[in-house]
Design goal:
It contains 15 helices and five strands. With 379 residues, it is mainly α. The longest helix is centred in the first third of the chain and has 27 residues. 49% of the residues are buried.
Length: 379
């Protein structure tokens, strides 16, 4: 089934490439055909998709219509949180379409829709609260990491893992909405207190154990080390890798939960269009990171961490029995994605393409509006 998924991803990558680069799509398909191991083929397919997205977004348009579309796109790119919110809405909507086509319980659709509404409301409320109340960023990060640690010690257990808390009869997985915030906070500040938060979070994930989120934390720190290599980042990476290694050393006996795990495969069983809807939703989640990394060089470390964390969560869902974010039944993942968008710059320096194809830079003027009370590590 992984081979089928890899083939579908490569075909999608070929479709979104500009017309002048369609030869790349044929080359991708030919290369995929000679890769024998399904896991390696799937990794290659995701790489092709990332390359296709980058080429498509960077490809210049010279016609009047193309210029208008590019201008509208740049307006959205100048508001990365707004772009991420739109992607969250689109991905969740595609997930609801898949679950409806697969005849999931109506309560699943209601929970995901409610999580989307609550997440959007929470993002707005916390942004306003952050403007009025300035808390110590490092202390917020440590408190959030402590929440995961408390979950690992006193949370709800299942299949030998302790990853959840019960809220009104609904199980929530705090790591899904805490790890991205803590990782992004560290990407912005990179001081001793935010490092302490990373190490607490890593310890908690090792204790749970939560292989998927430990891998996501390690992926985020690895991406940060590639962009901002200094001693404190390498210490954080070492701690995250140690936690991930600890989860690999322990058995993971999580069973498959319908509409939660293995959604990338089961969706194609429901209908091919449902499968492609799930793939499209997963791709949408990564668009803010790719767009920000390309168009906003001054904040590349933040976009790299955001993209690496959520890509790792997606890959974990594709390779193991872990919640499929946004497109599967998981209110925690929806809340986590929407809250994590607050870790993105409120308005970055963007690279625009004018009518003459020239590159124009416009610097941000509202960095100070970042909600320090919510996201640790805000500079």
């Amino acid at each position: 089934m992984r081979r089928v998924l890899a083939t579908a991803i490569v075909r999608l990558a070929a479709i979104i490439l500009p017309a002048s680069l369609r030869g790349w799509g044929r080359a991708m398909a030919a290369e995929l055909a000679v890769i024998e191991r399904p896991g390696a083929a799937l990794a290659f397919a995701f790489g092709c998709l990332a390359a296709a997205l980058r080429q498509t977004m960077a490809f210049p348009r010279h016609s009047n219509r193309g210029t208008s579309v590019m201008h509208q796109g740049n307006n959205v790119l100048r508001h990365p949180r707004r772009l991420a919110a739109l992607c969250a809405i689109g991905a969740t909507g595609l997930g609801l379409a898949y679950m409806w086509a697969a005849r999931a319980p109506s309560s699943y659709l209601a929970v995901n829709a409610a999580a989307l509404a609550i997440g959007l409301l929470a993002a707005g409320v916390l942004t306003e609260a952050g403007r009025l109340w300035r808390a110590a960023p490092g202390a917020v990060g440590v408190a959030l990491a402590g929440l995961i640690l408390l979950t690992s010690l006193f949370g709800v257990s299942a299949d030998g893992a302790t990853r959840w808390i019960s809220a009104g009869g609904i199980l929530l997985q705090p790591a899904l909405f805490v790890i991205p915030i803590v990782a992004l906070g560290f990407a912005r500040l990179r001081d001793a207190i935010s490092l302490f938060a990373i190490l607490i979070a890593a310890l908690a994930l090792a204790l749970q154990p939560d292989r998927a989120m430990a891998g996501a934390l390690a992926a985020g720190m690895a991406a940060l080390a590639l962009v901002r290599r200094d001693r404190v980042v390498l210490v954080a990476l070492g701690g995250a890798l140690a936690a991930f290694t600890a989860t690999l050393a322990r058995a993971d006996a999580s069973s498959v939960v319908p509409f939660v795990d293995q959604v990338f495969y089961s969706s194609f069983d429901a209908h091919p269009l449902a499968g492609f809807a799930v793939l499209a939703g997963a791709i949408l989640m990564l668009v803010p990171a790719v767009a920000g990394y390309i168009y906003d060089s001054s904040h590349r470390a933040i976009y790299a961490v955001f993209g690496a964390v959520w890509l790792a969560v997606i890959l974990a869902a594709a390779l193991g029995n872990y919640p499929t974010p946004l497109v599967g039944y998981s209110g925690s993942a929806i809340l986590g994605y929407l809250i994590s968008l607050m870790g993105l710059p409120p308005r970055p320096a963007t690279r625009s393409i004018g009518q003459d194809g020239a590159t124009v830079r416009s610097e941000s003027k509202d960095h100070q509006s970042f909600p320090r009370a919510v996201l640790p590590g805000v500079g």
